[in-house]
Design brief:
This is Mannitol-1-phosphate 5-dehydrogenase. InterPro entries: 6-PGluconate_DH-like_C_sf, 6PGD_dom2, Mannitol_DH, Mannitol_DH/Oxidoreductase, Mannitol_DH_C, Mannitol_DH_CS, Mannitol_DH_N, NAD(P)-bd_dom_sf. Its EC number is 1.1.1.17. Keywords: NAD, Oxidoreductase. The protein is an alpha/beta fold. It has two domains: 288 residues, NAD(P)-binding Rossmann-like Domain (Rossmann fold); 201 residues, N-(1-d-carboxylethyl)-l-norvaline Dehydrogenase, domain 2 (Orthogonal Bundle). 45% of the residues lie in helices and 12% in strands. The strands form four sheets. The protein has a five-stranded parallel β-sheet, with helices on both faces. Strand 4 and strand 5 form a beta hairpin. The structure holds nicotinamide-adenine-dinucleotide and D-Mannitol-1-phosphate. D-Mannitol-1-phosphate binds next to helix 11.
């Protein structure tokens, strides 16, 4: 029998041997102590799984999740999840092709904010809400990538800061809800960022308090000094769900699911333990609670996430479309590993982690053929990634007199990709909020203005004036233009 998560069969279907049944716990009476903003693939493969794990153990019944979508694009998640009562299928794909699936039941409510902003504000202001977690992407934090300052001039921010505004941004929602709690004598919820941003807790504190100060300086100081913003390192490669995944869930596991999620087996979550209103017993779900997350964050962002960037553009230009195909190319695998070795001196010692082993494992994870992570996903929104993750590596290496050849080559490969045509002259669809200006600069650079792409202080600061960076950058770019990605890789790897 097929289990339709939106249909009556979902309520009636008995769990068959080998089939995927409904979550094995009673969902009536679960209370959402967590409100999550930005319910995409990653949240559903990671945090919601951890809470589901606790619920399966009979724990955390006050810590179920209310998911919230803020952007117009989230209407599709509403349309998938609301009829399914928040349930969805998570498929874990092992490298040998083995599959595991479970129906996750920890999301007990989903609110699409544009439908009813007041309902979202009151859910956030409700004393039962004790944690507000975020996966709103790197760009969602709206800060200048060089100065780190909150961009108070963004039009949506300006609109949300007006007295009485109906919010549209994450800042408007979170800060209005905090203001209501403050006025009502309800202690503030903890804001838990789960985005790939270095020092994500401190960054969240800075941007939310800066926004609050636009409304009222006293509120800004109260948010800064009173609200807890624990930092976290989160890790699980979660590709974009495809129609093939929907079909797989139906045919293989017998579940009709409008929006399942798929992920690799690896799961890591390292979290600073700063939750004044309490938290679920996440340690029982494998979460590492630590005093200082920074070494873990540096390791993950600078090796895994920049490692993805090292693979993505050179991989695309070499003709690959999936991460596992690209990393099976020995030149690319060697280049990614060489970049990781170049970045390693910028890390801090990580308790209990052998960095050499960690790097080897990363390449194995990138190579998982079942996950089918696309290079297109890894090539998107680079202007929110490379400046935040890689430029600090370059600066640190320059400060200590280190070589930046591979880091510069990654930036050159991004510039070559941003030109918008591949080595066969086929168009590249560059997905980036700055795609137009990046494309213009990249093409101007190709056509005779050698450093045009780097001449954007908001992305690169003063790196354009640093010959120890521009030297290897121009060399890699020249080879990319003259001889292509494979020849560039050969030169980088073999010298
Ligand atoms: N996918 C992964 O492998 C992975 C792994 C670790 C961490 N992450 C973190 O999670 C983030 C989201 O990844 P995903 O795979 O879930 O992406 P996704 O595209 O599936 O979901 C992104 C969600 O964020 C929301 N969002 C985007 N910009 C926003 C903004 N400015 N304000 C408010 N909401 C906004 C979207 O509406 C959507 O709900 C990543 O950017 C990263 O920081 C992802
Ligand atoms: O999702 P982003 O934009 O932070 O970065 C793209 C990938 O590098 C990222 O999603 C990784 O797959 C993830 O961080 C693994 O834990």
């Amino acid at each position: 029998m097929t289990l339709d998560l939106a249909g009556t069969t979902a309520a009636q279907a008995p769990a068959r041997d080998g089939a995927v049944g409904l979550p094995p716990y009673d969902r009536t009476g679960l209370r959402p102590g967590i409100v999550h903003l930005g319910v995409g693939g990653f949240h559903r493969a990671h945090q919601a799984l951890a809470v589901d794990e606790l619920l399966r153990r009979g724990e955390a019944r006050d810590w179920a999740i209310c998911g919230v979508g803020l952007l117009p694009g989230d209407a599709a998640m509403r349309d998938a999840l609301v009829p399914q009562d928040g349930r969805y299928t998570l498929v874990t794909k092992h490298p040998d092709g083995a599959l595991e699936a479970r129906v996750v039941g920890s999301l007990v409510e989903y609110l699409y904010a544009p439908d009813d902003p007041e309902a979202v504000l009151e859910r956030l202001a409700d004393p039962a809400t004790r944690i507000v977690s975020l996966t709103i992407t790197e760009g969602g934090y709206n800060f200048d990538q060089v100065t780190g300052e909150f961009d108070a001039t963004a039009p949506a921010v300006v609109a949300d800061a007006r007295p009485g505004a109906v919010p549209t941004t994450v800042f408007g929602y979170v800060v209005e809800a905090l203001a209501r709690r403050r006025a009502r004598g309800v202690p503030p919820f903890t804001v838990m960022s789960c985005d790939n941003v270095q020092g994500n807790g401190d960054k969240a504190r800075a941007v939310f308090s800066a926004f609050a100060a636009l409304r009222d300086p006293g509120l800004g100081a109260w948010v800064r000094d009173t609200v807890a913003f624990p930092s976290s390192m989160v890790d699980r490669i979660t590709p974009v769900t495809t129609d093939e995944d929907r079909a797989l869930v139906r045919e293989w596991f017998g579940v009709v699911d409008r929006w399942p999620v798929v992920a690799e087996p690896f799961f890591q979550w390292v979290l600073e333990d700063d939750f004044p209103l309490g938290r679920p017993p996440l340690q029982d779900a494998g979460v590492q609670l630590v005093d200082d997350v920074e070494p873990y964050e540096l390791m993950k962002l600078r090796l895994l996430n920049v490692g993805h960037q090292a693979l993505a553009y050179l991989g695309w230009l070499s003709g690959y479309r999936y991460a596992h195909e690209a990393v099976a190319d020995p030149l690319l695998a060697r280049f990614v590993r060489d970049y990781m070795d170049e970045a390693t001196p910028t890390l801090r010692p990580v308790p209990g982690v052998d960095l050499e082993e960690y790097k080897t494992t990363l390449l194995e994870r990138f190579g998982n053929p079942a996950v089918r992570d696309t290079l297109a996903r890894l090539c998107a929104e680079t202007s929110d990634r490379i400046p935040k993750w890689l430029v600090p590596v370059v600066r640190e290496r320059l400060r200590t007199g280190g070589d930046v050849t591979r880091a510069a080559a990654i930036v050159a490969s991004w510039a070559r990709y941003a030109e918008g045509t591949d080595e066969q002259g086929a168009p590249i669809e560059v997905v980036d909020r700055l795609a137009d200006t990046l494309g213009e600069r990249a093409r101007a650079q190709r056509d005779g203005d050698p450093l045009a792409f780097l001449r954007d202080p908001a992305l690169f600061g003063d790196l354009v004036d640093e010959p120890r960076f521009t030297g290897p950058y121009l060399e890699a770019l020249g080879t990319l233009h003259r001889a292509g990605a494979q020849a560039t890789l050969k030169q980088l790897v073999e010298g």
